[in-house]
Design goal:
Helix content is about 25%, strand content about 20%. It is of the alpha+beta class. The protein has a domain at about 45-75. The chain has a two-stranded antiparallel sheet. A two-stranded antiparallel ribbon has the order 2-3. The longest helix has 20 residues, at about 1-20. About 0% of the residues are buried.
């Protein structure tokens, strides 16, 4: 039991010494993302019904490049406000 306590104390002391003595280095990565291309022109086509609204397409960053997310028809919600 005493040996286990000494080992635990040694582990705690080593961890504290390493944290305080080594000096922690925090690195922050800065990613510069180019602006997206101009929006693409999409023809929504006929509405599937009077309760549908057109959600226009948009550019989305996938971590490496801009990709176009196509527009789509969606059922209107009571909280929906067009821009």
């Amino acid at each position: 039991m005493a040996k286990a306590i000494r080992i635990a104390s040694l582990v705690v002391a080593c961890a504290a010494g390493a944290a305080l003595g080594s000096g922690c280095v925090v690195r922050e990565e800065v990613v510069v993302v180019p602006r997206p291309p101009a929006d693409q022109v999409e023809e929504p086509g006929p509405t599937p019904g009077t309760e549908y609204v057109w959600i226009r397409g948009r550019w989305a960053w996938n971590g490496r490049a801009w990709v176009w997310r196509h527009g789509h028809w969606e059922v209107s919600r009571p909280s929906y406000r067009p821009r």
